[in-house]
């Protein structure tokens, strides 16, 4: 009996990474050479710079390249090197897709929380925000803040969706590496100020302002990740 083979859905950044890796293995980019700039790669491959950024970080995780702060992206793998095995259980969804999905859901959660949160739920949101000021692990309380808002929205399906998106983000090696490069004390200070605006709107029971504040916060995250990776010449900014 003839059987069908399973069909795998390959994400765009994974396709880009595989193509660049193939060129490295073929010797088109020798070990020690610098890859073309992010802008050049985006133009040649006709994709967004965000997708290029995700692909380059995936290649660094796999040992093909090294991102050197202030210098660029350099090839570390030798010609003809065997492709590395994919990480077991790694989720193949890019960070920007995950953030864009959060932008569709979390602003509505904030608006609903402003209307429906109980006093205990409001206290939980406030506590998560305040703990982020006094910890050396702000990411943990960042998730608690967003999770508390989702839990207060009064819709179990929306709350579960937020939890799932956060789980995908935290289990993504590419997302984790992006955070290593781009999330520093200054970024957390900005995020904390954005959280304060969200909290203020929810406490004021203002759904329109809460929705806008959450949307602005997530737009800010996307903007910071897109601006901070490199300049137009493809170099990595030295202040990260």
Architecture blueprint of SSEs:
Layout: H1 12-25, H2 38-45, H3 49-61, E1 65-68, E2 72-75, H4 95-116, H5 119-131, H6 138-151, H7 156-171, H8 173-182, H9 185-203, H10 207-228
Antiparallel strand pairs: 1-2
Comma- or semicolon-separated keywords:
240 residues, mainly alpha, Arc Repressor Mutant, subunit A, 10 helices, 63% helix
Strand runs, count? 2
Distance from first to last alpha carbon = 57 Å
* Largest sheet: spatial strand order: 1-2
CATH class of the largest domain: Mainly Alpha
Secondary-structure element pattern, one letter each: HHHEEHHHHHHH
Q: CATH-wise, what's the superfamily of the largest domain?
A: GntR ligand-binding domain-like
Radius of gyration from CA coordinates: 20 Å
CATH topology of the largest domain: Four Helix Bundle (Hemerythrin (Met), subunit A)
Strand content: under 5%
Low-confidence stretches: 233-240
Arithmetic mean pLDDT: 86
| Biggest β-sheet strands, sense, barrel | 2 strands, antiparallel
Distinct helical segment count: 10
Number of domains: 2
Give the helix proportion (percent range): 55-70%
